[in-house]
Amino acid sequence: MGNAGVIRAIGDAFGADPTAVVNLVGPLGSGKTTLLAELAGPAVVDGVDTAGAGEALAGRAGPLVVAGRIPLRSLPGWSAAGALVTIEVPAWSEEDVTRLAATHDVQAGPGLDLVRRLSGGVPLIAVLLCRALHSGAPADVPGAVADHAATGILDRLGSEASGPAPAPGSDAATPAGPPDIPAALAVLAAVGEADADLVRELIDLPFDALDRLSLTRRTGGGLAVAEPFRTLLDEAFRWREPVTHQVALTRATAHTRHLLETAGDRAGRDRLIFRSWFLTGDRVVRDTLFPTGEPHAAVGPAAAADLDDIERLVHQWARRGGLDPRSTGRILDGWMRSTPDGFLVARTPDGRAIGVAHVPPVTERSIASMEPVLQQHTETVTANGDLPADSRGVFVGLAFCDEREPEVHALLLRAILRPAFAHGGVVVSTMWPEYQQLVRRLGFAYRGAAADDVYGCGRPCEVYTHSFAPGRLGGWLDDLTSRGVPTPLGGDVARLRRHLRAALEGLHDPAALARSPLLAVTGSTSPEALHDWLRAAVSDLVRAEDRLDAEAGRTLDACYGRAGTVRHDRVAQRLHHSRATHFRRLDRGLTLLATRLLLAPVTGAPESRT
User: What's the whole-model pTM score?
Assistant: First the structure.
């Protein structure tokens, strides 16, 4: 809509009712004050975000414009004397941000690309990012630039960051100090969303203290920092405190995995799978499936009236990829004849179709239309393969969205994956390098390339499959997140031994310990705490009454007690053990520690025996 559109909307509201109160709502830094300065005639009240504002404005009549970060209707004590018209300040377009950056002498190049990506259409963020670039923060280090801007945003929170006033006469009448809201927002931004249990574990702050902030919003999984503030704070946190950032991801992954193992409904399970992907921290997965910004569109099944839009979007898809239009048309015709109910369409609020996908279930009826893009792999990947015995999953042969709408593109991709979850698996055929990279990062199995270049673009389709059967979900997430953040450990001694050995090998490297899933298992809140836990556990073993157990403890201590590369031959010689005895004692020690964790999970460092 832009500033001019907002001003027109305000004028229209007063034209319809001169006594109306217009509530101008927008996030911190969205330009509300600038808009108010352009208004002529009506009385204005700015910054209506503090406790008591609702009561102070109760019963007021217009013409009056009230601007704030949260809707006036949500403030305690608010009551309208007449009409209340709420108008949201829209995010700035990419073109608007580009012009703003130019006034701050940030021209085309990596710096401008970063300002566009991280600002999310919020002008204050764009200005702060430009200033960060001029201060010397390098454009190729997004975290350093984001850190400057994040500091400016958090400084602007004002009274929101001071915490609620204690109730009169309560024991908290003299608080020890205000809650650390900036640090809490950084952690919440890093993990994506958090319920009250996870907020308590990670932040040690009341859930309500975050819930009342204008930068947070409620989601299906608890609270989240609204975009683009979430991405900005996450980038800054990842750059400023990389070890602490990794610890937050690791502990949130443990929490999410526990919820996933006990999820009772499909919608909750799907959301937790997406959250697990987000928590890997993988840049490709994040940028593709969880980009900065909110999607201003909805995705739903295509109707018969959508045929023309589907054809138009598919032709755009073909032109972007240099595909042969005749070949593309033949494949589309086959899909429309056999599985017309397999199309999804993404539409903007005004009804404009900007994205399309084809995600039909794999059935005897649909297999023939898939053969041109599966070719020699058709029989293998549609005959169950690694999919559940009672399902062949869904087929994904097309996903396209206007390239200017990355948030809607991500929404479309997530909409594709939900039926894949529901049908237990997915078969993907794609010639797009970006999609090939994404499905590889997600751990889908590569089945090979099609023999012929069916689209005539010089890039043969690559075929991938994956099973989402519940019985295979845990192992897949373990493998997937081990590339980013290890998942919490189950009751498998062998797995615990591997992670214990890795943690001991990284005992003197805080960054390595920050990635250990033992953080969640041992109750450690930092790499230092996990270091202390491991040292104490080994010390306990050294003092064991059983001679072989004590020798196992001494072997672990000799191997990992000091920094540096382990030389097993030298350790064995120093302890007067043969090579075979050395490795038996090493294995015994790891097994004893793993068994200890399984039988008696702890919430802090083990107490040493005296």
Answer: 0.74
